[in-house]
Amino acid sequence: MHEGILRRQSARESAARTYARALPIVPVRARGMTIEGADGRRYLDCLSGAGTLALGHNHPVVLEAIRRVLDSGAPLSVLDLATPVKDAFITELFRTLPPGLADRARVQFCGPAGTDAVEAALKLVRAATGRTGMLAFTGAYHGMTAGALAASGGAGDVRVARLPYPQDYRCPFGVGGNRGAELAARWCESLLDDPKSGVPLPAGMILEPVQGEGGVIPAPDDWLRRMRQITADRSIPLIADEIQTGVGRTGSFWAVEHSGVTPDVMVLSKAIGGSLPLAVLVYRDDLDVWQPGAHAGTFRGNQLAMAAGTATLAHVRENGLAERAAALGSRMLSQLREFQAGFPCVGEVRGRGLMMGVELVDPESEAAGPDHNPCADDHRVATNGPGPTRTPHPAYPELAAAVQRECLQRGLIVELGGRHGGVVRLLPPLTISDEQAAAVLDRLTDAVAAAARRQQDHGRRHRHDDGPAERNG
């Protein structure tokens, strides 16, 4: 059955499929962090539906919430009509929102996917301000529809000005740390205040508090506060994309809370649906200028997703899972950094809470080009919490892919990301146990060591094969 299903998938599904290419498994059962494939193999899932499964697979509180709706005879899809299920979801959601937003918030249900909520956010701020352009950041990922793609670096009908996103290891200004973040903030101010910059006052700024697909890059807290001040001073709505970072993932309920920032708009999806499709927009009431029907979506009344989402939000809040994510994530990052010290191919370990990334590089290549940091040394410490960083060598996506394969062989599912696909990403459920965390680290570090050895052996064979030809030439 396993091989047959995979063959039929390859023959019948779109060439656009992604996860299925790197993870040739056929899940048939799942519970918590464990997935069982049709071939009988078991895996620890550190992908969690790209961050959707805050409580892991088939958590009892989620299943019970879904069963209650099914057994009640309630309608399952109600467009935007009011229901007890929706009322309970909104009440629980507002209970978790950052201070300063919950008391004056409005919520728009946007449809099944996060990209739908991003489109709604762009439409909202353009309507509220009467302006059209947007500010977004290098390395961003906001979805696959036209406006979201434009804000992510693709094509679209939204005019987007791109700003540098600060990071330590591959600082766009070649300095890193506080200095790099300060230069990024000044760049933003200059762009907005220079009448000859070519960038008129925009309708809004959209950012991720931690860039996920961009390589697990946490925004420095001081820089995020600067972005809040810059936008507030110029009446530019600030949109926080918390689709992947929300619901406890980074060690606070919402990632913006690390810096004490209250955005004007929050884009939410993934974990808020408790594993089912749900996307919402939460925003300040003074931005609520839409006319009836200005934004809609057939599946915005998904009752099962709202019930599952209410159960998930409440369970995370009542059981302190965000705080546990902060503590456990800190321990896991510390252990990964200890491992990093012995492997030149590990350029940087970074993350926040249970959102972690291991960037793999080619230490045999010269560190050069715009990513090179001439001020760095082998023990430079970043300002946002990561451990020692090294002078950046080129990304090594082939090694990252090899590590992903080695992980799968060891029963561990991980994702890749980053600018060049060279970052191994970990998104375990917030319910991961200490024993499971230890197993994840054991399997990952063993996979990195094995993949690095294979690459070294391949390099030696290549050099050996080339040697005689050069001597005989």
Keywords:
alpha/beta, seven-stranded mixed beta sheet, four-stranded mixed beta sheet, 19 strands, disordered C terminus
What does this structure look like?
This protein is of the alpha/beta class. The chain has a domain of 258 residues: Aspartate Aminotransferase, domain 2 (3-Layer(aba) Sandwich). It contains 13 helices and 19 strands. Strands 4-12-11-10-7-5-6 form a 7-stranded mixed sheet. The chain has a 4-stranded mixed sheet with strand order 1-2-3-17. β2 and β3 form a beta hairpin. The longest helix has 39 residues. The radius of gyration is 23 Å and the shape is globular. The chain starts with a helix and ends with a helix. The C terminus is likely disordered. Belongs to the class-III pyridoxal-phosphate-dependent aminotransferase family. Its cofactor is pyridoxal 5'-phosphate. Keywords: Aminotransferase, Pyridoxal phosphate, Transferase. It is an enzyme of class 2 (transferase).
Write the layout of secondary structure elements.
Elements: H1 2-12, H2 19-22, E1 27-31, E2 34-37, E3 42-45, H3 48-51, H4 60-72, H5 84-96, E4 105-111, H6 114-129, E5 134-137, H7 146-152, E6 160-163, H8 177-193, E7 204-207, E8 210-211, E9 217-218, H9 221-233, E10 238-241, E11 265-268, E12 279-284, H10 303-318, H11 321-340, E13 346-352, E14 355-360, E15 380-381, E16 388-389, H12 397-409, E17 412-413, E18 415-417, E19 423-426, H13 434-472
Parallel strand pairs: 3-17, 5-6, 5-7, 7-10, 10-11
Antiparallel strand pairs: 1-2, 2-3, 4-12, 8-9, 11-12, 13-14, 14-19, 15-16, 18-19
Helix pairs in contact: 4-10, 5-10, 8-9, 11-13, 12-13
